[in-house]
């Protein structure tokens, strides 16, 4: 597999810097010992819950700006990694918008059937997900993905980012997902995420941990064509 393209353009830096400003200052406090890991999860949880619940737009409630066209553009690569019917969990599902959208896209295509589940650290967002999608209310769980384990494993496990775990524990988080979430013959999906401006790239990082992805997909950002959106996957 070829190395992944990395852009160093200013627009990439600005976009990613903006999204990670809050996270960055928290990480500094964690590194300096001003807050504990437990505080880190609690503050992040409060931040996500307050920001997402402040909106009445279901896309924003799951952390996405822009219109539906942009949302589809950024996420449609998920359709390409659904290669059979089965169960699907979104780890860090917020209000369930990704599950709702992917389920509709896959159902409309008519090839496969997905049974959707969601996990989020935020009780407020899980309550919203259950309210929005009452037919799946038994399929939404509140828990911290770094140590929560489901009773049954899933055919597809999707996690947008590894920074749901504190730095230094992301390899353990990935291991936890492989061991406790993914069924034999199942597929773990990481992304879609925006390209990194630093090395190693996510692909290189996970490969250096001994988890070389089975494959990846890359396409341009909806508005910023010099930014890539990427998705990695592993087949067990
Ligand atoms: C960017 S949103 C992604 C929402 C959804 N997966 C999507 O793609 O539309 C990140 C979500 O992950 C959740 N989250 C962050 N850290 C988590 C953790 N350690 N365990 C479970 N959920 C977590 C946040 O509460 C937030 O709702």
UniProtKB/TrEMBL annotation:
Listed GO MF terms: methyltransferase activity
Pfam families assigned: Methyltransf_31
Domain of life: Bacteria
GO biological process: methylation
Record-linked Gene3D superfamilies: Vaccinia Virus protein VP39
Record CDD domains: AdoMet_MTases
UniProt name for this protein: 2-polyprenyl-3-methyl-5-hydroxy-6-metoxy-1, 4-benzoquinol methylase
Organism of derivation: Paenibacillus harenae
């Amino acid at each position: 597999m070829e190395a992944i393209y990395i852009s160093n353009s200013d627009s990439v830096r600005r976009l990613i810097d903006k999204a990670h400003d809050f996270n960055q200052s928290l990480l500094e406090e964690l590194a300096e010992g001003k807050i504990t890991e437990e505080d880190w999860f609690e503050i992040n949880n409060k931040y996500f819950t307050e920001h997402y619940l402040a909106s009445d737009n279901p896309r924003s409630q799951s952390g996405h700006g822009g219109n539906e066209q942009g949302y589809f553009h950024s996420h449609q690569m998920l359709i390409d990694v659904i290669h059979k019917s089965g169960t699907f969990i979104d780890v860090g599902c917020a209000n369930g918008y990704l599950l709702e959208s992917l389920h509709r896209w896959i159902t409309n295509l008519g090839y496969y059937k997905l049974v959707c589940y969601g996990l989020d650290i935020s009780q407020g967002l899980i309550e919203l997900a259950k309210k929005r999608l009452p037919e799946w209310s038994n399929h939404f769980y509140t828990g911290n993905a770094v140590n929560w384990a489901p009773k049954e494993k899933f055919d597809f496990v999707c996690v947008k980012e590894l920074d749901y775990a504190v730095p230094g524990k992301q390899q353990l988080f990935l291991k936890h997902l492989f061991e406790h979430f993914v069924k034999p013959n199942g597929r773990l999906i990481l992304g879609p995420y925006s390209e990194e401006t630093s090395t190693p790239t996510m692909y290189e990082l996970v490969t250096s941990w001994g988890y070389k992805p089975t494959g990846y997909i890359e396409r341009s950002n909806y508005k910023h064509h010099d930014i890539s959106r990427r998705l990695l996957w592993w087949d067990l």
